[in-house]
Amino acid sequence: PFVMSLNSDWGMGKTFFVKRWIKDLEERGHPCIYFNAWESDIADDVFLTFLGEILLNLCEIVPKKDDKGIIEKATSFG
User: Fold this and answer.
1) Dihedral sign of CA atoms 43, 36, 8, 13 in order
2) What is the spatial distance between Cα 64 and Cα 78, in angstroms, rounded to a whole number?
């Protein structure tokens, strides 16, 4: 796992950089989860929105045949 924080002025290319990097990583076979707090600002509790986004992406990343309870464990943890 890897977490990185980018901080720069508006319009400096942070989103472009991250989306391009994700595309590159996915092309190399690395699963990625992209979360943009500004685009996902739909609830009072950002943590719930964040967990929901992770769960949605996990369902896409982990095939059902390889699940081994990962989705249920993630849901109960959240």
Assistant:
1) negative
2) 20
DSSP-derived 3-state class of residue 49 = helix
Q: Is the pTM of this model over 0.70?
A: no
Can you tell me which residue has the tokens 């699940």? 67
C-alpha distances in angstroms, 73 versus 7, 51, 62, 70? 32, 13, 13, 5
Q: Residues 35, 14: contact at Cβ < 8 Å?
A: no
Average pLDDT in the chain:
78
- At 43, give phi and psi (nearest 5°): -140, 160
Q: Detail the DSSP E strand segments found in 1-78.
A: none
Pull the structure tokens for residue 43: 């609830």
Query: The tokens 């993630």 sit on which residue?
Result: 74
